[in-house]
Amino acid sequence: MAAFLRQAMLDPSLKQDTHSYNDEMNGRRVEEVPQEIGEAPILNALDSGVHQQAAEMDDNLSTKSVKSLSLSESIHEDPKEDATRIHELLEQRIHKPPVVAEGKRRPSMDKDFRNIEGTAIAAILCARTNKERIEIARIFVILYGKDLLDTIRHVFTGELGELLQALLDTPARYDARQLHRAITSTNVLTGLSTKDSTLIEILCTRDKNEIQNIRREYRRLFGSYLEHDLSKVTWSHLMHLFMWLVVGARDDSAQVDEKMAFEDAHALWRGNEGVGFDATLYNVVLSSQSFPQLRAVFAEYKKYAEIDALLAVDDEFSGDHKVALKTIIMNVNGDLPIFFARRLHGAMHGLVRHDTTLTRILVTRSEIDLNQIKQMYERLYCKSLEADITSHCVSSYRDGLLALVRAH
Which InterPro entries does the entry mention (predicted)? Predict the structure, then answer.
C-alpha cells in the first residue's frame, strides 16, 4: 500500500491547516482606486468620439427589441467606450419614471417598462471575458469615481442584478461569496437538494490553484478561514473530504507511478470489504492524488474489480458524500460537462427555479466549457439549453442569460 495511505490510516484526524495567509492581491483592486479623481480632466484626455457614438447607440436602443439586440451592435472594442456606454445606461435607469403597477399596465406598455438598460448592460458584459470586464470596471472608476460593481448592486435587484454582479466579480471572489452564502444560509434548500450541493459544485470542480485563490479571497472578504467555516456546517466524511481539498493536499505532479496506482486500486477494493473504513480511503486518494495518477488508479481498479470506479462509488456510498466523490471522479475523467448539464436541468425543472445555481454555472463556466455543456445538455434532454432558458426564465433576466449562452 502507498506510503500516504498508510499515514492516512494511522492518523485520519485530518488536522486543519491554520497557517497564516498571504492576503495581498496579485493586482490592484478596483476598490483601491482613489474616489476623488476628477472626471473632467480625464474625460478631456479621452477620445472625443466616445460620447457621440454612445449617444447614437442610445437613440437606437428604444427602437430595438431586446431579442434582436445583437452583441455586435451593442459592443465596442475599447473598454473606455464600454464603460461610457454602461454609465449612460445606468443614468437612464436611475432617472427612469417609476414602473406602473402591473394591473394598470397595457400590453403595449411592456416594451417601455422592460429593463432594456439592464439587458443592454448584460449584452456588453457577456461578450467580454472576465479579464476584459474587470478592465471595464477599472476604467469606470477612473472616469466616474464610482465602483461599477457597487453601482450595479444598488441600481439592479433580483435575478438580473445578481447576474450582472456575477459578471463583474473575479472568479475567485465570486466563488468565495457563493461559498459564504451557502455556509451562512439558514435555508437548507439553498442548492438543488441541500446546501451542501453548492459546496460540492465549487470545491469538487475547481483545481488546486483555483481553490487556494478562493481560500485567500474568502479570508480577505469575511475575516475567517474557509475550512473553519466549512467544519461548522458539514460533518463526518464529507467534512474531511472538504478539508483535504481546501488545504491543497493534491499532488501537482504530471508523472504517473504505476506501482502506486496498482497498490491504491487494490487498497480501495479491499477497503470496500470493511465497515466504514472505505470512506477514509476514498477521501485520501481522491483528494491527494494528481489527476493523471487518479486516471491510472481508476484504470487499475476497473481491471481488478471489473467495475468502473464511478459505479463502485454509486453502489458503496450515499448522500452528499457520494455526490462529492462522484463529482471528483467525473472531473478527473473529463465529464464535468455532464455534471453541469444535469445541474442546469435540475435548476430549471425542480419544484422551484434555482436562479442562483443557474447564474453561477453559466457565469463560471462561460470561458471554460460552456459550449460542451450546451452540447451535452441537448444530448441528454433532447432540448437546447437556450430553449429551456427561454421557457423557464422571464423578462430581462432571461435575455441576460441568453446573451451569455449565445456569446460563448
Answer: Annexin, Annexin_repeat, Annexin_sf
